[in-house]
Write a structure and sequence with these properties.
Blueprint lengths: L13 E3 H5 L8 E5 L3 H12 L3 E5 L11 H13 L3 E3 L2 E7 L2 E6 L7 E6 L2 E4 L8 H6 L17 H13 L2
Parallel strand pairs: 1-8, 2-3, 2-8, 3-4
Antiparallel strand pairs: 5-6, 6-7
Length: 169
């Protein structure tokens, strides 16, 4: 997972979305999710089913920007129906035990400070590839990087890449 450079991000009330989805971390009742991509949306839906109040913050101008067009409308509709508050064009600047501070961008009068109350902050800002094993095995055996060790992405891309690598063996 990517840990963004945000003031006070290493805190007890800050957790990773993947840990929440895997059931490894509990959250409070008022949750701010930093990141409005597919993982942030899935985490928001999951937590609302558990009765949590969710605010999702996205620094881009739209939520679910990485969700395929054919599914994006349905995802946004479900989020709205669930009562999830979605805030776009917000760059998070610092985190406290009481919530998240950010700068709202894209307005004619310039950015302004905003505060979102939360007892738990969930990070869903993306992932980076992990390929230490590839480097360790290079030159010893033939190695093909596929899936997230090559580049984080969707499962269909990993399966396709794996299929093509298998055909080259």
């Amino acid at each position: 997972p990517i840990i963004p450079n945000i003031a006070n991000i290493i805190r007890k009330n800050v957790v990773l979305a993947l840990d929440v989805l895997r059931g490894k971390r509990d959250v409070g009742n008022q949750v701010v999710i930093i990141g409005g991509g597919m993982v942030g949306c899935e985490t928001a839906e999951y937590l609302t089913q558990k009765g949590k109040k969710i605010i999702m913050l996205e620094m881009l101008p739209r939520i679910a920007n990485d969700v395929v067009k054919s599914l994006r409308f349905d995802v946004i509709t479900r989020l709205r129906k669930a009562g999830i508050r979605m805030e776009t064009s917000v760059e998070v600047t610092r985190i406290s035990e009481y919530g998240v501070w950010g700068l709202r961008k894209g307005f004619d009068y310039g950015p302004n400070d905003v505060f979102f109350e939360a007892d738990t902050v969930v990070l869903a800002v993306g992932t980076r590839s992990e390929n230490r094993l590839t480097k360790e095995l290079e030159g010893k055996i033939p190695v093909y990087n596929v899936g997230d060790c090559s580049q984080p992405g969707k499962i269909k891309d990993a399966v396709s890449c794996g299929f093509l690598a298998g055909n080259n063996i």
